[in-house]
Amino acid sequence: MLTSPTVPGAELAPDDGPRQNLGALLRHVHLSGPLSRAELAERMSLNRSTIMGLTTRLSAAGLVRERRPTAAGRSGRPSLVVTPAADRVYVLAFDVAVDRLVVARVALGGEILERRVAARSRSGPDLDAVVGVLAEFGRDLHRGAPADAICAGVGASYCGMIRPGDGMVRYGPYLGWVDQAFGAELGEQLGLGLPVAVGNEAHLGALAEHGRGAGVGVQNLIYLHGDVGVGGGIIVGGEVLDGEAGYGCEVGHMLVNPHDGRPCSCGARGCLEAEAGERALLSEAGRPDSLIGHDAVRAVVADAQRGDPAAQRAVARIGDWLGIGVANLINLFNPGVLIFGGMMRDVYLGAEPQIRSRIERNVLPVSRERVRLSAAALGDDTTLLGAAELAFAELLGNPLGVMAQAGT
Amino acid sequence: MLTSPTVPGAELAPDDGPRQNLGALLRHVHLSGPLSRAELAERMSLNRSTIMGLTTRLSAAGLVRERRPTAAGRSGRPSLVVTPAADRVYVLAFDVAVDRLVVARVALGGEILERRVAARSRSGPDLDAVVGVLAEFGRDLHRGAPADAICAGVGASYCGMIRPGDGMVRYGPYLGWVDQAFGAELGEQLGLGLPVAVGNEAHLGALAEHGRGAGVGVQNLIYLHGDVGVGGGIIVGGEVLDGEAGYGCEVGHMLVNPHDGRPCSCGARGCLEAEAGERALLSEAGRPDSLIGHDAVRAVVADAQRGDPAAQRAVARIGDWLGIGVANLINLFNPGVLIFGGMMRDVYLGAEPQIRSRIERNVLPVSRERVRLSAAALGDDTTLLGAAELAFAELLGNPLGVMAQAGT
Question: What is the CATH number of the domain that holds A109?
Answer without folding.
Answer: 3.30.420.40
